[in-house]
Amino acid sequence: MALVFVLPSRSLVQDLRSHGEGAAATVIGVDSKPKYVKVRLVSSPKAGTEVKLSDYAGMLPETETGASMIVTYDPEDPSRILAQSWVEDPPANLPAYGTSALAVICLGLTTAVIWRRFRILRTFGPEKPSASSTGGEKPSDKSTGNTKS
After folding, report:
1. How far apart are CA 26 and CA 15, in angstroms?
2. pTM for the whole thing?
3. Which residues contact 64 (CB under 8 A, 6 or more apart)?
4. What's the whole-number mean pLDDT along residues 29-51?
5. Rounded to an integer, what distance in angstroms lies between the CA atom of residue 98 and that of residue 114?
6. What is the secondary structure of the chain as a DSSP string?
7. Phi, then psi, of 81 in degrees rounded to 5
8. How far, rounded to the nearest angstrom, does the alpha carbon of residue 49 sit from its chain's CA centroid?
9. Could you read off the pLDDT of 80-134 as tens digits, one per residue?
C-alpha cells in the first residue's frame, strides 16, 4: 500500500527534475480544503495555459488566489506540474510513512503470533504420535484376514 503513495509522487518529481521547465505562474483558484490549486502560466512558451497543480502524495501547497509562484511543468504535458520548491526538495510523504509503519507493525504482530503458536504446539502437543484409525490397538489376525493355522 505504501508503494501506491510513494511511486507516483517520486516518478513525477524525477520526471520534472530531468526534463521539466520552470515558469512563473499566478494562482487563479484555490479550494478551501485544498482539493485543488489552479494556476495560469505567465512566463513560458505555454503562457496563458490554466492547469491544476499536481498533488504530491495527496498534498498541495498552501497558497491563496492571486498569489504568484514558481512552478516546474512538463512541456509535453502541462498538466504534470508542481511548485518548483517541491521539485527541488519534496515534502515528507506522510501517507507513505504511515502505511509503512502500519505494515511493519502488522508484520511484527503476525510473526509474534506464529512463533507463539509454534511454541505452544511444540510444548503442549501430544507426546506420542496419534494412533492410526484402528484406535491404538494392533490389528488381530481375524481382522486382517490371516487364515493360516
Report:
1. 23
2. 0.55
3. 27, 30
4. 81
5. 24
6. -HHHHHHHHHHHHHHHHHH-EEEEEEEEEE-SS-S-EEEEE-SSTTTT-EEEPPPBTTB-----TT-EEEEEEETTEEEEEEEHHHHHSPPP-HHHHHHHHHHHHHHHHHHHHHHHHHHHHHHHS-SSPPP-TTTTSPPPHHHHT----
7. -140, 140
8. 32
9. 888 888 788 777 666 667 777 888 899 999 999 999 988 888 887 666 665 555 5
Phi, psi of 20 (to 5 degrees): -85, 160
Q: In the block, which residue shows the cell 512563473?
A: 24
User: Which pLDDT score, from 0 to 100, does residue 111 have?
Assistant: 94
Three cell numbers at 69?
Answer: 509562484
Strand partners, 81: 73
How far, in Å, CA of 79 to CA of 16, rounded? Answer: 12
Helices 2-19 + 94-124 axis angle, to 10: 140
